[in-house]
Amino acid sequence: MLLRKTNSDNPDFQILAGELEMDLSIRDGDNQIQLAELNKIDFIQHVLIAYLQNEPIGCGAFRNYNEDTVEIKRMFVRPEFRVRGVASAILSELEKWSTEIGHRICVLETGKNQPEAIAFYKKHGFEIIPNFGRYIGSENSVCFKKELPDRLDPAF
Fold first, then answer.
1. pLDDT tens-digit profile of 14-36?
2. Which one, of 63, 61, 156, 43, lies nearest residue 103 by Cα?
3. How far is CA 90 from CA 62, 76, 133, 138, in A?
4. Which among 13, 52, 74, 142 is most buried, taking Cβ atoms within 10 Å?
5. Domain total for the chain?
6. CA dist 7 to 10, 12, 66, Å?
7. What is the domain range of residue 34?
8. 50, 32, 47: which is closest to 109 by C-alpha?
9. CATH number for the domain including 22?
10. What's the pTM?
């Protein structure tokens, strides 16, 4: 598997993000319509795409949230490639990348109808926090936070 850094202009990312939106529409119905405005993919400068034999199989991204925090966005792995460590590899690389450019904290939002995502983020050290920013008041949202290790830590 190859992880490639890019941005939201990448056509493979746009295809994967579209597949994610279709999946979320099935799970969340009308709730997804309300959140769609918050999940636009234009102008994202930090995007990772996972490839297997030149086929895009998953993606993830982050946006600057504030001076020391990034918001993880658009985490998705095609169903036939799940439970193979792809999402873990993407998330780990996003965390490293965000640390390399000076951020110390990751936040993210996922939906209550995504129990596997909730378990995944808990497994990777994220803690549930009160809904933040644009997700305040969203009954379907579950928000998380993780403090990242110091980028000089050799274990990271």
1. 999 999 988 887 766 655 444 54
2. 63
3. 11, 9, 24, 27
4. 13
5. 1
6. 6, 10, 19
7. 2-147
8. 32
9. 3.40.630.30
10. 0.88
